[in-house]
Write a structure and sequence with these properties.
3 helices; mainly beta; 173 residues; two-stranded antiparallel sheet; 7-stranded antiparallel β-sheet; single chain
């Protein structure tokens, strides 16, 4: 048996800012984008089950970084195209059952890059990479987590697989 519950009330406030600038470079068209987000969550009321669990209560309020932003550059010229994106995640905390078990993760920056070539109106090819500088989250420092095989902080805003590269074909029918 399972049952859903509304076990807490929260107030979520934040700010999103988006700037986009389009311009020409030689024979091509470029777009520069800057995006920023600030989010603040406060638990206003919670059931005793949640308020008794410090770790859960803090995860609800601060599970994600308060700051996130990205800068992107896209260029298209004839059959060629490219996109580069850098994403910033602010500091965040992986909470434990008590203050001694809290671990704050560093701010992170990930970079992605893709180069595209349109072979014809119907077919194209792209090569690219995500997390091209092979960034990893901070290492887990708590002995109890390491003993369970957890190498990196569990709730990092970035993955723990490092970077990867790809080749992609596209077809339009």
């Amino acid at each position: 048996m399972s049952r859903y519950t509304n076990s807490f009330d929260s107030r979520n406030q934040g700010l999103d800012a988006v700037l986009t600038y389009r311009f020409d470079i030689g024979e091509g068209k470029a777009t520069l984008g800057l995006n920023a987000n600030y989010t603040d969550t406060k638990i206003l009321r919670a059931s005793p089950v949640i308020t008794a669990d410090r770790e859960r209560l803090l995860e609800l309020e601060r599970f994600v970084p308060r700051w996130k932003g990205n800068a992107s550059f896209t260029y298209e010229a004839g059959r060629f195209g490219m996109t580069a994106v850098a994403t910033y995640f602010g500091k965040w905390t992986d909470y434990g059952a008590n203050v001694a078990n809290d671990q704050t993760g560093s701010a992170e920056i990930l970079a992605n890059l893709e180069l595209r070539y349109r072979l014809s109106e119907a077919f194209g090819i792209a090569v690219g990479g995500e997390n091209i500088f092979n960034n990893y989250p901070d290492r887990e420092a708590r002995a109890s987590q390491i003993a369970n095989g957890i190498k990196y902080l569990r709730f990092a805003p970035i993955g723990f697989n490092g970077g990867f590269w790809y080749v992609r074909g596209t077809a339009k029918f």
